[in-house]
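Hi support team,

I'm opening this ticket because the web form for multi-chain structure prediction keeps timing out on my end. I have pasted the exact lines I submitted so you can reproduce it. The total is 358 residues across two entries, so I didn't expect it to be a heavy job. Is there a limit I'm missing, or should I split the entries? Thanks in advance, R.K.
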Amino acid sequence: MRTNERPGRQMATLLALAFACALVSNALAGPTRRLAWYPTHPAPRPSTNPAPIAAAPPAPAPPALAATAPGPVAKASPHPAAPLSPAPSTPALQDLYPAPAHGAPFEIEDAEALALHRAGALFLDARRTSIYEEGHIASARLFSYWEDGLDAKLQVLADATFDFKDPVVIYCSGGDCRDSHLLADRMWPLGYRNLRIFKGGWPAWKAMGGPSAQGREVVK
Amino acid sequence: MTLRRIFALALGLVMLAAAWPKLIDPPSFAQTLYTFRILPESLRHAVALVLPWLELWIGLALITGRGESGAARWAFLLMLGFAGAIGLNLLRGNPIDCGCFGEGPVRTAAEKLMAMRWEILRDLAFAALAVPLLKPRA
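Hello R.K., no limit was hit. The queue was backed up. Here is the completed structure from your submission:
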């Protein structure tokens, strides 16, 4: 760096150095520490472009499922996460938990989240990888909102044979955590019309003893 | 050691301490910037990537004395910017963890709002440290 006292030039040099270092360090960073320079939005699947959804009353949690006691917490052995391309359309799940008429993401309470999990709905964890590995809802997929690679994962999910009217449950750390809302906002333009945000998130799930797992995401 | 040098060293160390936690985890810093609700989404990630390195280089410049005046100007602007951003959220009643020196302790909304007042004063004090360094050395 030039040492002559020209503050304007010095400021420009410092900014250029910072920019260059950021470029290099981000390129070399691991996937959980990398950040997309500009968040892009994957294109919606053309064949299932969002269309107005017929009015459907929000379904309450089925009594048989909701009343069931929570299962034991499997801490040591991680449950395999649901595959990115789940079985084609599951009408039963759609019938039990139809997409709302408004089609917009909406919040759900603990009991409904538990019932959806028992019914086999896709769960997405929007938290950071390190936090996910400490503990997560069993079979939940890792879709960390703040880490690079989210767009690619969303694209794979959108390209898969996933029915956009099937329920998807998104959660993060509860409280004032907004990552699940941000992920839902990112997914909605792709055509998903049954996005349910589990408001209580991981702390509520843990408190009610829902099935959980630790460690890395394991995809079947 | 002159008073100017002491100020430069102190401010340089502050900038290095601020840079380090952000450098090792840019996604966390981007998450913090989101809670500030100031930057548009298109700029948030770029700022989260570049700002920590800028803080690092400012700190090094102040400590080594090379490019001291330019670094002090950056530090002055950044500290005023941070104080302004926290102040704006205080006015909005939006409790935030400023993330100035990494992730802070878990706090209630009321505790965060109280801490934000002190953080504004602290950032203004850091900006004041930069004032004697703004003018290039003769």
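A quick check on our side: The mean pLDDT of chain B is 94. Let us know if the file doesn't open in your viewer.
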